């Protein structure tokens, strides 16, 4: 039987990750964005990514409803976008608010999925699997379009704070 490792505990604070800016639309076309620190590539061929979303989140409902969503891996210049996107208590149109702050989004013509311009990597994804994974829900998605890959360094999330890549260490 498994144990709990509570959020914010030393057990979880030892892990680091990137920040996925997950964009989705509901069946009426209303766009939404959230920050997901659990965004991972799990296959190269075909390209498959996994995101983990808290139960009951609007983004999860949108993805299950429409099947398509955007994954933008935040760059080091997008920490404020990540912060706004990841604040669940904000009861406003986050896309509209971010646009008013000068954030640019690009809409895929075929799927109407938005991605965040200026990210390290921008993808359009289609859900292929979904299952409960403890206190989150795991969504696996096949990448149907690589919108843009840049040389911008990804934003790192570690110990509840944002970081950028530092000193390269030698092997062995």
**Helix and strand element order:** HEEEEEHEHHEEEEEE
**Share of helix, binned:** 10-25%
Task: Give the CA-based shape.
Answer: globular
Multimerization status = single chain
Q: Please outline the major beta sheet.
A: 7 strands, antiparallel
Total number of beta strands: 12
Any guess at the CATH architecture? Roll
- Can you list the strand order of the major beta sheet? 3-2-6-9-10-5-4
Strand fraction: 35-45%
Q: What is the CATH class designation?
A: Mainly Beta
**Amino-to-carboxy terminus distance:** 36 Å
The CATH superfamily label reads Electron Transport, Fmn-binding Protein, Chain A
Poorly predicted residue ranges: none
* Global structural class: alpha+beta
> What is the residue-averaged pLDDT?
93
Number of domains: 1
Integer-rounded radius of gyration: 16 Å
Could you name the CATH topology? Pnp Oxidase, Chain A
Number of helices: 4
